[in-house]
Amino acid sequence: MSWLTRVRNGIPFLPKRQIGDTLWHKCGKCGSMVFTKEWEDNLFVCPRCDHHDRIGPKARFEMLFDSEHYRFLPTPEVREDPLRFKDSKRYVDRLKAARAATEERDALITAHGTIGGRGVIVGVQDFAFMGGSMGIAVGAAIVAGIKAAIEAKLPYVLFTAAGGARMQEGILSLMQMPRTTVALAQLREAGMPYIVVLTDPTTGGVTASYAMLGDVQLAEPGALIGFAGQRVIEQTIREKLPEGFQRAEYLLAHGMIDMVVHRAELTARLATLIAYLAPEKAAA
User: Residue 144's closest CA among 121, 163, 115, 177?
Assistant: First the structure.
């Protein structure tokens, strides 16, 4: 043992001083410590490695809508805990905890505003609420948003972020897949565009239904998009899969999505698409 090691080991280091959570943000990809203010000003994207962090509905709406002005659409009332489900915790207790943490009623919030001067209905799935899982409430919110878009003759934009169907609701959660598909068919019959923005992560039954039915499919850089996990697929087909095969860039290269758009450019890109796809009467 060198003298430097002995001296270092003999120094009675004090516990690390706790730094306020509001001061620093640690990047989930590269591990860099970034001033929270710098991170937020950069639209919650790491300025070092360009990692797009997950964000909730409020931050998303403020980025998208003109002058940050919008109004929330009412969240439909649905029956809670229809199966009286309990695993390690009761489902009703999980709902209470998620609502306390996010201050939202459920995992999908819808708002009405303008993007590039044109009216639009936007739904945002919040991964912070039970992993953005698709349950009865999420299905009802999507259908309500689509109906509002049809009535107002506006485009419907949906930001997806989910781990799949909500297991605590069993088959009732899976029924939201055909339910939302039928509503989207009605939107298409009404001549209104449906634009999907896939964010990290979009998986499971969400990917197998409304997440892949857009007239235009966008994704944020690095977003994980798929149905089953890589390990499950590899064990099933007994083959090694390419690195990053479920990331947005790989899916773009293989024709599964139309664009990968940086968050800083997303509002302008959506404004262009809405102006092109929506009829003039949809202008606010």
Answer: 121
**Edge-first strand listing for the sheet containing 118-125:** 70-72, 108-115, 118-125, 156-162, 194-202, 216-219, 259-260
Alpha-carbon distances of 231 from 69, 228, 251, 280, rounded to whole Å: 43, 8, 18, 47
- Please give the DSSP secondary-structure letter assigned to residue 283: B
Q: Give, in degrees to the nearest 5, the angle at Cα 270 between 269 and 274.
A: 125
Task: For residue 110, give the H/E element and its range.
Answer: strand 108-115
User: Which one is predicted more confidently, 14 or 220?
Assistant: 220
Domains of the chain: 15-53 (no CATH), 54-282 (3.90.226.10)
The pLDDT of residue 144 is 98
pLDDT in tens, 100-151: 999 999 999 999 999 999 999 999 999 999 999 999 999 999 999 999 999 9
Helix (H, G, I), strand (E, B) or coil at 34: strand
How many C-beta atoms surround the C-beta of residue 153 within 10 A? Answer: 14
Q: Which amino acid is at 43?
A: L
Q: Say yes or no to pLDDT of 83 above 70.
A: yes
